[in-house]
Design brief:
single chain; alpha/beta; Aspartate Aminotransferase, domain 2; binds pyridoxal-5'-phosphate
Length: 388
Protein backbone atom coordinates (compact mmCIF):
# COMPACT_ATOMS: atom_id res chain seq x y z
CA UNK A 1 0.00 0.00 0.00
CA UNK A 2 1.16 3.55 -0.62
CA UNK A 3 0.93 6.35 1.99
CA UNK A 4 -2.37 7.66 0.69
CA UNK A 5 -4.02 4.24 0.94
CA UNK A 6 -2.70 3.67 4.46
CA UNK A 7 -3.97 7.05 5.63
CA UNK A 8 -7.38 6.33 4.11
CA UNK A 9 -7.53 2.95 5.85
CA UNK A 10 -6.62 4.59 9.15
CA UNK A 11 -9.44 7.09 8.79
CA UNK A 12 -11.88 4.29 8.23
CA UNK A 13 -10.84 1.79 10.90
CA UNK A 14 -8.86 3.46 13.69
CA UNK A 15 -10.53 5.41 16.48
CA UNK A 16 -9.67 9.03 15.91
CA UNK A 17 -7.88 9.73 19.19
CA UNK A 18 -4.67 11.08 17.60
CA UNK A 19 -3.96 14.15 15.55
CA UNK A 20 -1.47 12.49 13.21
CA UNK A 21 1.10 13.93 10.83
CA UNK A 22 0.26 12.62 7.32
CA UNK A 23 3.31 10.36 7.01
CA UNK A 24 3.18 6.53 6.86
CA UNK A 25 6.56 5.15 7.94
CA UNK A 26 7.63 1.72 6.83
CA UNK A 27 11.35 1.28 7.52
CA UNK A 28 14.38 2.97 8.99
CA UNK A 29 18.06 2.90 9.84
CA UNK A 30 19.32 4.83 12.86
CA UNK A 31 17.82 8.35 12.56
CA UNK A 32 16.76 8.01 8.94
CA UNK A 33 13.30 6.69 8.11
CA UNK A 34 11.47 5.92 4.87
CA UNK A 35 7.77 6.21 4.20
CA UNK A 36 5.61 3.81 2.21
CA UNK A 37 6.36 5.74 -0.99
CA UNK A 38 10.13 5.55 -0.48
CA UNK A 39 10.56 9.20 0.61
CA UNK A 40 13.33 9.71 3.19
CA UNK A 41 13.07 11.58 6.50
CA UNK A 42 15.57 12.56 9.16
CA UNK A 43 13.96 11.57 12.42
CA UNK A 44 14.35 13.92 15.40
CA UNK A 45 11.53 12.12 17.28
CA UNK A 46 12.70 8.50 17.80
CA UNK A 47 9.06 7.53 18.32
CA UNK A 48 8.72 10.08 21.18
CA UNK A 49 12.03 9.32 22.85
CA UNK A 50 11.68 5.56 22.51
CA UNK A 51 14.13 4.33 19.87
CA UNK A 52 17.24 5.40 21.76
CA UNK A 53 19.44 3.15 19.60
CA UNK A 54 17.62 4.28 16.45
CA UNK A 55 15.85 2.13 13.87
CA UNK A 56 16.99 -1.45 13.18
CA UNK A 57 20.06 -1.35 15.37
CA UNK A 58 22.03 -4.54 14.65
CA UNK A 59 22.80 -5.58 18.21
CA UNK A 60 19.24 -4.94 19.35
CA UNK A 61 17.68 -6.79 16.39
CA UNK A 62 19.93 -9.78 17.10
CA UNK A 63 19.13 -9.84 20.84
CA UNK A 64 15.39 -9.52 20.26
CA UNK A 65 15.08 -11.98 17.37
CA UNK A 66 17.23 -14.61 19.10
CA UNK A 67 15.04 -14.36 22.20
CA UNK A 68 11.83 -14.48 20.11
CA UNK A 69 13.06 -17.70 18.51
CA UNK A 70 13.82 -19.23 21.93
CA UNK A 71 10.82 -18.45 24.14
CA UNK A 72 8.63 -15.39 23.75
CA UNK A 73 6.35 -15.19 26.79
CA UNK A 74 6.00 -17.21 29.97
CA UNK A 75 3.78 -15.14 32.35
CA UNK A 76 4.81 -14.24 35.87
CA UNK A 77 4.06 -17.69 37.26
CA UNK A 78 7.62 -18.62 36.25
CA UNK A 79 11.16 -17.33 36.40
CA UNK A 80 13.21 -16.25 33.40
CA UNK A 81 16.85 -15.30 33.08
CA UNK A 82 16.32 -12.28 30.75
CA UNK A 83 13.98 -10.89 33.37
CA UNK A 84 16.23 -11.37 36.38
CA UNK A 85 19.38 -10.30 34.50
CA UNK A 86 17.69 -7.05 33.46
CA UNK A 87 16.57 -6.32 37.01
CA UNK A 88 20.11 -6.82 38.28
CA UNK A 89 21.57 -4.61 35.54
CA UNK A 90 19.03 -1.87 36.32
CA UNK A 91 19.80 -1.99 40.03
CA UNK A 92 23.53 -1.73 39.34
CA UNK A 93 23.01 1.15 36.90
CA UNK A 94 20.72 3.21 39.14
CA UNK A 95 21.49 2.30 42.75
CA UNK A 96 17.81 1.44 43.28
CA UNK A 97 17.14 -1.91 44.95
CA UNK A 98 14.42 -3.72 43.05
CA UNK A 99 12.27 -3.57 39.90
CA UNK A 100 8.68 -4.30 38.94
CA UNK A 101 8.19 -4.84 35.21
CA UNK A 102 5.15 -3.77 33.19
CA UNK A 103 4.42 -2.46 29.69
CA UNK A 104 4.16 1.31 29.58
CA UNK A 105 4.83 4.56 31.34
CA UNK A 106 1.39 4.89 32.80
CA UNK A 107 1.53 1.37 34.17
CA UNK A 108 4.89 2.07 35.81
CA UNK A 109 3.39 5.23 37.34
CA UNK A 110 0.27 3.35 38.49
CA UNK A 111 2.61 1.00 40.30
CA UNK A 112 4.43 3.92 41.89
CA UNK A 113 1.09 5.41 43.01
CA UNK A 114 0.05 2.08 44.54
CA UNK A 115 3.41 1.89 46.35
CA UNK A 116 2.89 5.42 47.70
CA UNK A 117 -0.62 4.56 48.90
CA UNK A 118 0.67 1.38 50.57
CA UNK A 119 3.53 3.35 52.17
CA UNK A 120 1.12 5.85 53.71
CA UNK A 121 -1.67 3.41 54.51
CA UNK A 122 -0.98 2.82 58.20
CA UNK A 123 -0.90 6.51 59.07
CA UNK A 124 -3.79 7.45 56.80
CA UNK A 125 -1.61 9.32 54.31
CA UNK A 126 -2.85 8.88 50.74
CA UNK A 127 -2.39 12.20 48.96
CA UNK A 128 0.23 12.68 46.28
CA UNK A 129 1.62 16.05 45.24
CA UNK A 130 2.51 16.48 41.57
CA UNK A 131 3.52 19.57 39.61
CA UNK A 132 1.62 21.86 37.30
CA UNK A 133 2.37 21.06 33.65
CA UNK A 134 3.44 17.54 34.54
CA UNK A 135 2.50 14.52 32.46
CA UNK A 136 2.27 11.08 34.05
CA UNK A 137 -0.12 9.13 31.81
CA UNK A 138 -3.73 8.68 30.74
CA UNK A 139 -5.15 6.04 33.09
CA UNK A 140 -7.40 7.38 35.84
CA UNK A 141 -4.71 7.52 38.52
CA UNK A 142 -2.00 8.88 36.24
CA UNK A 143 -4.45 11.29 34.61
CA UNK A 144 -5.22 12.70 38.04
CA UNK A 145 -1.47 12.86 38.68
CA UNK A 146 -1.02 14.85 35.46
CA UNK A 147 -1.10 18.54 36.36
CA UNK A 148 -2.80 19.79 33.19
CA UNK A 149 -6.52 20.56 33.01
CA UNK A 150 -6.62 20.01 29.26
CA UNK A 151 -6.15 16.26 29.83
CA UNK A 152 -8.73 16.16 32.65
CA UNK A 153 -11.68 18.07 31.31
CA UNK A 154 -13.48 15.32 29.37
CA UNK A 155 -13.21 12.66 32.08
CA UNK A 156 -14.38 14.16 35.37
CA UNK A 157 -14.61 13.33 38.19
CA UNK A 158 -10.94 12.51 38.66
CA UNK A 159 -9.51 10.02 41.11
CA UNK A 160 -9.26 11.66 44.51
CA UNK A 161 -6.06 12.45 46.38
CA UNK A 162 -3.88 14.47 44.02
CA UNK A 163 -2.60 17.96 44.80
CA UNK A 164 -0.76 20.24 42.41
CA UNK A 165 2.15 22.53 43.15
CA UNK A 166 4.15 24.92 41.03
CA UNK A 167 7.34 23.58 39.46
CA UNK A 168 10.59 25.08 40.74
CA UNK A 169 8.76 26.63 43.70
CA UNK A 170 9.47 24.91 47.00
CA UNK A 171 7.05 27.13 48.94
CA UNK A 172 4.25 26.02 46.66
CA UNK A 173 5.01 22.35 47.39
CA UNK A 174 5.40 23.02 51.10
CA UNK A 175 2.02 24.77 51.19
CA UNK A 176 0.34 21.54 50.02
CA UNK A 177 1.97 19.27 52.60
CA UNK A 178 -0.13 17.98 55.48
CA UNK A 179 -0.29 14.72 57.46
CA UNK A 180 -2.22 13.03 54.66
CA UNK A 181 0.49 13.46 52.03
CA UNK A 182 2.49 10.29 51.32
CA UNK A 183 4.46 11.19 48.19
CA UNK A 184 5.63 13.79 45.70
CA UNK A 185 5.93 12.72 42.08
CA UNK A 186 7.77 14.74 39.45
CA UNK A 187 9.76 14.72 36.20
CA UNK A 188 13.30 16.13 36.25
CA UNK A 189 12.56 17.75 32.90
CA UNK A 190 8.86 18.08 32.14
CA UNK A 191 8.44 16.64 28.66
CA UNK A 192 4.88 16.93 27.40
CA UNK A 193 4.43 20.04 29.56
CA UNK A 194 6.87 22.03 27.42
CA UNK A 195 10.42 20.72 28.01
CA UNK A 196 10.86 22.49 31.34
CA UNK A 197 13.92 21.47 33.38
CA UNK A 198 13.69 21.45 37.17
CA UNK A 199 16.28 23.61 38.90
CA UNK A 200 18.96 21.78 40.82
CA UNK A 201 18.38 23.70 44.07
CA UNK A 202 14.62 23.06 43.89
CA UNK A 203 15.10 19.31 43.42
CA UNK A 204 17.70 19.04 46.17
CA UNK A 205 15.66 21.03 48.69
CA UNK A 206 12.56 19.07 47.77
CA UNK A 207 14.34 15.74 48.33
CA UNK A 208 15.50 16.98 51.75
CA UNK A 209 12.03 18.20 52.67
CA UNK A 210 10.47 14.88 51.65
CA UNK A 211 12.99 12.92 53.72
CA UNK A 212 12.22 15.07 56.81
CA UNK A 213 8.46 14.69 56.44
CA UNK A 214 8.39 10.93 55.70
CA UNK A 215 7.13 11.67 52.19
CA UNK A 216 8.33 9.59 49.26
CA UNK A 217 10.04 11.31 46.37
CA UNK A 218 9.09 9.53 43.16
CA UNK A 219 10.83 10.53 39.95
CA UNK A 220 9.03 9.88 36.67
CA UNK A 221 11.94 9.06 34.35
CA UNK A 222 9.68 7.73 31.60
CA UNK A 223 10.91 10.38 29.14
CA UNK A 224 14.12 11.58 30.81
CA UNK A 225 15.62 8.19 31.69
CA UNK A 226 18.00 5.92 29.77
CA UNK A 227 20.57 8.50 28.71
CA UNK A 228 18.13 11.06 27.29
CA UNK A 229 19.42 13.97 29.39
CA UNK A 230 23.09 12.96 29.27
CA UNK A 231 23.27 11.00 32.53
CA UNK A 232 21.93 7.43 32.63
CA UNK A 233 19.02 8.63 34.77
CA UNK A 234 18.15 12.32 34.89
CA UNK A 235 18.01 12.31 38.72
CA UNK A 236 21.67 11.24 38.77
CA UNK A 237 22.44 14.63 37.25
CA UNK A 238 20.72 16.29 40.23
CA UNK A 239 22.58 14.38 42.94
CA UNK A 240 19.47 13.07 44.70
CA UNK A 241 18.42 9.56 45.73
CA UNK A 242 14.73 9.00 44.97
CA UNK A 243 12.56 6.45 46.77
CA UNK A 244 10.83 5.37 43.58
CA UNK A 245 11.63 5.84 39.90
CA UNK A 246 9.62 4.89 36.85
CA UNK A 247 10.90 4.09 33.36
CA UNK A 248 9.36 3.23 30.02
CA UNK A 249 9.83 4.92 26.62
CA UNK A 250 13.55 4.39 25.87
CA UNK A 251 14.17 1.35 28.05
CA UNK A 252 13.67 -1.37 25.41
CA UNK A 253 14.33 0.63 22.20
CA UNK A 254 10.77 0.25 20.92
CA UNK A 255 9.36 -2.84 22.62
CA UNK A 256 6.62 -2.06 25.14
CA UNK A 257 8.16 -2.02 28.60
CA UNK A 258 7.69 -0.08 31.80
CA UNK A 259 9.64 -0.40 35.03
CA UNK A 260 8.94 0.80 38.54
CA UNK A 261 12.05 0.72 40.74
CA UNK A 262 12.20 1.16 44.50
CA UNK A 263 14.91 1.99 47.02
CA UNK A 264 16.25 -0.41 49.64
CA UNK A 265 13.74 0.87 52.25
CA UNK A 266 10.80 0.01 50.00
CA UNK A 267 12.02 -3.24 48.53
CA UNK A 268 9.44 -5.39 50.35
CA UNK A 269 6.50 -2.98 50.25
CA UNK A 270 4.55 -4.97 47.67
CA UNK A 271 3.74 -8.58 48.52
CA UNK A 272 2.37 -11.34 46.25
CA UNK A 273 -1.02 -10.42 44.84
CA UNK A 274 -0.71 -6.65 45.29
CA UNK A 275 0.40 -5.79 41.76
CA UNK A 276 0.74 -7.70 38.53
CA UNK A 277 0.85 -7.48 34.76
CA UNK A 278 0.34 -10.31 32.30
CA UNK A 279 3.00 -9.17 29.84
CA UNK A 280 5.27 -7.58 32.47
CA UNK A 281 8.90 -8.65 32.16
CA UNK A 282 8.28 -10.36 28.84
CA UNK A 283 11.57 -12.10 27.85
CA UNK A 284 11.73 -10.54 24.37
CA UNK A 285 11.27 -7.01 25.74
CA UNK A 286 13.82 -7.79 28.47
CA UNK A 287 16.36 -9.04 25.88
CA UNK A 288 15.92 -5.74 24.00
CA UNK A 289 16.30 -3.73 27.21
CA UNK A 290 19.45 -5.63 28.22
CA UNK A 291 21.04 -4.57 24.93
CA UNK A 292 19.93 -0.96 25.54
CA UNK A 293 21.50 -0.98 29.00
CA UNK A 294 24.71 -2.58 27.81
CA UNK A 295 25.13 0.20 25.26
CA UNK A 296 23.69 3.30 26.93
CA UNK A 297 25.01 2.82 30.45
CA UNK A 298 28.54 3.51 29.27
CA UNK A 299 30.60 6.56 30.10
CA UNK A 300 31.78 7.13 26.53
CA UNK A 301 28.27 6.76 25.10
CA UNK A 302 26.84 9.20 27.65
CA UNK A 303 29.61 11.71 27.00
CA UNK A 304 28.82 11.62 23.28
CA UNK A 305 25.19 12.50 24.09
CA UNK A 306 26.41 15.66 25.84
CA UNK A 307 28.55 16.48 22.81
CA UNK A 308 25.65 16.05 20.40
CA UNK A 309 23.39 18.12 22.65
CA UNK A 310 25.93 20.96 22.73
CA UNK A 311 26.21 20.82 18.95
CA UNK A 312 22.43 21.00 18.50
CA UNK A 313 22.23 24.04 20.80
CA UNK A 314 25.14 25.77 19.12
CA UNK A 315 23.57 25.36 15.70
CA UNK A 316 20.04 26.28 16.85
CA UNK A 317 21.26 29.40 18.67
CA UNK A 318 22.54 30.73 15.34
CA UNK A 319 19.07 30.77 13.76
CA UNK A 320 17.45 34.20 13.84
CA UNK A 321 13.92 32.71 14.05
CA UNK A 322 14.74 30.75 17.22
CA UNK A 323 13.63 32.67 20.30
CA UNK A 324 14.62 30.11 22.91
CA UNK A 325 16.12 26.63 23.31
CA UNK A 326 15.60 24.77 26.56
CA UNK A 327 15.86 21.24 27.91
CA UNK A 328 18.64 18.89 28.87
CA UNK A 329 20.75 16.55 26.75
CA UNK A 330 18.92 15.31 23.66
CA UNK A 331 15.57 16.52 24.98
CA UNK A 332 15.23 19.94 23.40
CA UNK A 333 12.36 22.42 23.25
CA UNK A 334 12.59 25.27 20.74
CA UNK A 335 10.43 28.38 20.68
CA UNK A 336 10.17 29.83 17.18
CA UNK A 337 9.12 33.35 16.33
CA UNK A 338 6.15 33.94 14.03
CA UNK A 339 4.98 30.37 13.39
CA UNK A 340 3.14 27.82 15.49
CA UNK A 341 4.92 24.65 16.56
CA UNK A 342 2.24 22.57 14.86
CA UNK A 343 2.73 24.33 11.50
CA UNK A 344 6.49 23.84 11.78
CA UNK A 345 5.99 20.15 12.53
CA UNK A 346 3.81 19.73 9.42
CA UNK A 347 6.09 21.82 7.19
CA UNK A 348 9.15 19.88 8.40
CA UNK A 349 7.48 16.54 7.62
CA UNK A 350 6.67 17.76 4.13
CA UNK A 351 10.31 18.79 3.72
CA UNK A 352 11.66 15.46 5.04
CA UNK A 353 12.26 16.05 8.76
CA UNK A 354 10.25 14.56 11.62
CA UNK A 355 9.94 16.74 14.75
CA UNK A 356 7.55 16.82 17.72
CA UNK A 357 5.77 19.55 19.60
CA UNK A 358 5.34 20.12 23.34
CA UNK A 359 2.80 22.82 24.16
CA UNK A 360 3.88 25.78 22.01
CA UNK A 361 7.43 24.54 21.45
CA UNK A 362 8.96 22.43 18.73
CA UNK A 363 10.52 19.42 20.43
CA UNK A 364 13.47 17.27 19.37
CA UNK A 365 13.99 13.81 20.89
CA UNK A 366 16.38 12.23 18.37
CA UNK A 367 17.80 8.74 18.84
CA UNK A 368 20.82 8.89 21.14
CA UNK A 369 22.83 7.24 18.37
CA UNK A 370 22.10 10.00 15.83
CA UNK A 371 25.20 10.76 13.74
CA UNK A 372 26.65 14.20 13.09
CA UNK A 373 25.75 13.77 9.43
CA UNK A 374 22.11 13.06 10.32
CA UNK A 375 22.02 16.06 12.67
CA UNK A 376 23.39 18.29 9.91
CA UNK A 377 20.94 16.98 7.32
CA UNK A 378 18.03 17.47 9.72
CA UNK A 379 19.07 20.97 10.77
CA UNK A 380 19.54 21.95 7.13
CA UNK A 381 15.87 21.09 6.52
CA UNK A 382 14.82 22.81 9.75
CA UNK A 383 16.61 26.02 8.69
CA UNK A 384 14.88 26.00 5.32
CA UNK A 385 11.46 25.51 6.91
CA UNK A 386 12.04 28.37 9.37
CA UNK A 387 13.30 30.68 6.63
CA UNK A 388 10.29 30.01 4.39
C1 LIG B 1 5.07 9.35 27.94
C2 LIG B 1 5.08 9.60 29.38
C3 LIG B 1 4.27 8.86 30.25
C4 LIG B 1 3.24 7.86 29.77
O1 LIG B 1 3.84 6.77 29.14
P1 LIG B 1 2.92 5.76 28.29
O2 LIG B 1 3.88 4.66 27.93
O3 LIG B 1 2.40 6.50 27.12
O4 LIG B 1 1.85 5.30 29.19
C5 LIG B 1 4.39 9.09 31.60
N1 LIG B 1 5.26 10.00 32.08
C6 LIG B 1 6.06 10.72 31.28
C7 LIG B 1 7.02 11.69 31.87
C8 LIG B 1 5.99 10.56 29.90
O5 LIG B 1 6.76 11.31 29.09
Amino acid sequence: MNSKEIIKQEEEYIIHSYGRVPVALSEGKNATAKDADGKEYIDFTSGIGVNCLGYSDEGWVKAVSEQAAKIQHISNYYYNEQNTALAEALSKATGMAKSFFCNSGLEANETAIKIARKFGEKRGAYKIITLENSFHGRSFATLAATGQDSFHKDFLPLLDGFLYAEANNLDSVEAQIDDEVCAVMLEMVQGEGGVIPMEESFVQKLAKLCAEKMILIMVDEVQTGVGRTGSFMAYQGYGIKPDVITLAKGIANGLPMGVCMVSEELKDILQPGMQGSTFGGNPVACAGALEVLRRVNDEMFLREIEGKAAYFRHELDKLPQVALVRGKGLMLGIAVKGKTAKDIMLDCAEAGLLVLTAKDLVRFLPPLTITKEEIDRGLEIFKKVLAK
